[in-house]
Amino acid sequence: MTSNPQSPPRVLGRGSWAEARRIADVLRKETIGGALLLIGAVVALIWANSPWAHRYQAMTALTVGPHALHLDLSLAMWAADGLLAIFFFVAGLELKREFVAGDLRDPRRAAVPVAAAVGGVLVPALLYVVVNWGGAVKGWAVPTATDIAFALAVLAVIGRHLPTALRTFLLTLAVVDDLLAIVIIAVFYTAHLSLLPLLAAAVPLGLFALLVQRRVRSWWLLLPLAFATWALVHASGVHATVAGVLLAFAVPVLRSRGAGPGPGLAEHFEHRFRPISAGVAVPVFALMSAGVAVGGLDGLAQAVTDPIAVGIMLGLVVGKPIGILLAAWLVARFTRARLDAGLAWIDVAGLAVLAGIGFTVSLLIGELAFGIGSDSDGRVKIAVLAGSLIAAALAMVILRVRNRVYRQIYEAEQVDRDRDDVPDVYQQ
């Protein structure tokens, strides 16, 4: 079901039925990934604070890989640089599909979630800088990221009756948030830049783009080119996860004219790699990165009162909701966008608080800003975990209050599912 092109845009609109089905499938996979992520994080925390903590440290510091190619990295770095490249590849595919063939190809639909994502980056960063002015300001980007898998795991606990509009808005917000995160990493957290490997990366990337534009799916051709692109970007000094986004943007979304039925190449790759991203890459990264020795109650108290931790927690718990709500309200005010039937601004507030759950990318930025294993990195991990748990608890309270309304909207959506006459936007 699509709205009249002349009607005002909606802040929390249901969108088309084809998009709703696709997003429901994405959310199911990410929810499972969120549960695995939480398991990985809990195991890492328990292990790092157990009598066997030295074994955890030895495992994360274990170096593997060919020295000749400058890929002799610790397992922790392989998780951050390698596995998260898969995560950002899937995020890049999702982002491109949203803007090429999804509901966000309509600029009026895209305006509100994009503005909300930008607001959800700017305000937390500003609060962090205010708290750490004259100190460790290089961690300003840590509280700017939303972890969609973690957030969806919380949504699964809240209930399965949340309206499609809320889930769509959250997913779109997180996808744009991922794009902003990769731009921040590429621009602000590149310690050194070697132009020769970066220019050389254009060769395998160009060949990869040429093959996928011709709809080639042969893994024995594409995977070596993808790995070469990743390795050269890594050697250039730009964080290697950027390669994942570049490769994703090269993949076509629409099927070629005259092609038979079936998914487009971007959708095909997404189906193949999302389970790997959600089920392996992100949970293993959590296992490798979330382990921090708390040091008992005294150590925890010292850690959470450190300015770095205060800035991160304030950014996640306060900055994210304020930034998202303010940006969404301003865009709605000036574009005359309206909320979908049955929904209210308290629902936007619940999602905005939920977006304060930052984990995967927040931990990655913390490692880039302060160095893996440093004292400041330990404070980042504690602050990200604490801030995310507080945001999750607050969001659960807000959204549970509206559960009866959500159930009514959800039941109405189920009745309307027979309106399934939407053309396939992925075919051209």
UniProtKB/TrEMBL annotation:
<feature type="transmembrane region" description="Helical">
    <location>
        <begin position="31"/>
        <end position="48"/>
    </location>
</feature>
<keyword id="KW-0406">Ion transport</keyword>
<feature type="transmembrane region" description="Helical">
    <location>
        <begin position="308"/>
        <end position="332"/>
    </location>
</feature>
<feature type="transmembrane region" description="Helical">
    <location>
        <begin position="195"/>
        <end position="211"/>
    </location>
</feature>
<keyword id="KW-0915">Sodium</keyword>
<dbReference type="InterPro" id="IPR023171">
    <property type="entry name" value="Na/H_antiporter_dom_sf"/>
</dbReference>
<keyword id="KW-1003">Cell membrane</keyword>
<keyword id="KW-0472">Membrane</keyword>
<comment type="function">
    <text>Na(+)/H(+) antiporter that extrudes sodium in exchange for external protons.</text>
</comment>
<dbReference type="InterPro" id="IPR004670">
    <property type="entry name" value="NhaA"/>
</dbReference>
<feature type="transmembrane region" description="Helical">
    <location>
        <begin position="110"/>
        <end position="131"/>
    </location>
</feature>
<keyword id="KW-0739">Sodium transport</keyword>
<feature type="transmembrane region" description="Helical">
    <location>
        <begin position="137"/>
        <end position="158"/>
    </location>
</feature>
<feature type="transmembrane region" description="Helical">
    <location>
        <begin position="218"/>
        <end position="233"/>
    </location>
</feature>
<feature type="transmembrane region" description="Helical">
    <location>
        <begin position="68"/>
        <end position="90"/>
    </location>
</feature>
<feature type="transmembrane region" description="Helical">
    <location>
        <begin position="239"/>
        <end position="255"/>
    </location>
</feature>
<keyword id="KW-0812">Transmembrane</keyword>
<dbReference type="Pfam" id="PF06965">
    <property type="entry name" value="Na_H_antiport_1"/>
</dbReference>
<protein>
    <recommendedName>
        <fullName>Na(+)/H(+) antiporter NhaA</fullName>
    </recommendedName>
</protein>
<feature type="transmembrane region" description="Helical">
    <location>
        <begin position="276"/>
        <end position="296"/>
    </location>
</feature>
<keyword id="KW-0813">Transport</keyword>
<feature type="transmembrane region" description="Helical">
    <location>
        <begin position="170"/>
        <end position="189"/>
    </location>
</feature>
<feature type="transmembrane region" description="Helical">
    <location>
        <begin position="382"/>
        <end position="401"/>
    </location>
</feature>
<comment type="similarity">
    <text>Belongs to the NhaA Na(+)/H(+) (TC 2.A.33) antiporter family.</text>
</comment>
<keyword id="KW-0050">Antiport</keyword>
<feature type="transmembrane region" description="Helical">
    <location>
        <begin position="344"/>
        <end position="370"/>
    </location>
</feature>
<keyword id="KW-1133">Transmembrane helix</keyword>
